[in-house]
Write a structure and sequence with these properties.
The protein has seven helices and ten strands. It is of the alpha/beta class. A hairpin with a 2-residue loop joins strand 2 and strand 3.
Length: 241
């Protein structure tokens, strides 16, 4: 069994994987990430462990992780994913590249619009052959709420509402409707650019927003983990060849 770990801006996700089959998945939000990872492998040492992190791992953490598996693969700012091997441009972060790799695998032969709704909002396009056509990065939902509060003197910090009004009738509902409606309009415009594409939502806010869209949309919450499983399987095949 191999272990894949994604350390994102908000949370850590991990899964045991055998070839392309994801086993039990785990989610952790806290400061003791290394302790959480070591706890996952107390009973079983993974063959290959892929650690994909938005921040650079320290030399101490790298050394610890190397002792916990037979082969360690790190994807972080100091060890970027070699995106070109998968036909993606080098500037793509590991999570975007992994999500696109998974989308191409799951929807083979279909052009795809991949929407990741997390700390950031990313929109990426793939053609029917899995070739990357470009994409954009914007602020995620909770990031917008925080930015509005931080960069204004009088607006409160609010959280994602369960429901919104078409137009706000108070300060709170104006902020809620403005941010949520703005994201919906933004995403819809990207979907309308390529109406024949398969649309895939992933990320922490995917389920929240898919309920508010008019299109037929696939939600794949573990899209990045599936992509990391594909990357892991590639390393295993190289090692065995």
């Amino acid at each position: 069994m191999n272990l894949i770990v994604e350390i994102g801006n908000t949370a850590l996700k991990a899964a045991w994987v055998e070839e392309m089959t994801l086993g039990k998945t785990f989610r952790y939000q806290g400061e003791r990430k290394m302790e959480f990872i070591t706890g996952l492998i107390e009973k079983e040492k993974p063959g290959v462990m892929v650690i994909a992190s938005v921040y650079e791992l320290s030399a101490q953490d790298q050394h610890l992780l190397e002792t916990l598996c037979h082969q360690l693969v790190i994807l972080d700012p100091a060890h970027p994913l070699t995106a070109s091997r998968y036909g993606f441009p080098a500037y793509l972060s590991y999570d975007r590249a992994a999500a696109l790799l998974a989308a191409s695998h799951l929807f083979r032969g279909k052009a795809c619009t991949v929407v990741d709704l997390g700390t950031t909002l990313t929109i990426d396009y793939l053609d029917a052959e899995g070739r990357y056509e470009g994409g954009n990065i914007s602020l995620g939902c909770r990031t917008r709420f925080k930015a509005l509060n931080r960069y204004s003197r009088s607006l409160p910090l609010l959280d994602t509402p369960a429901e919104i009004l078409p137009l706000g009738d108070s300060l709170q509902s104006s902020i809620e409707s403005g941010i949520i409606s703005g994201i919906i309009f933004e995403i819809q415009s990207y979907i309308d650019r390529k109406p024949d594409n398969v649309v895939i939502f992933t990320g922490g806010d995917a389920i929240y927003f898919v309920k508010k869209m008019k299109n037929s949309i696939f939600v794949v919450c573990n899209l990045v983990l599936i992509g990391l499983a594909l990357i892991t399987d590639g390393y295993v095949r190289e090692k065995d060849s």
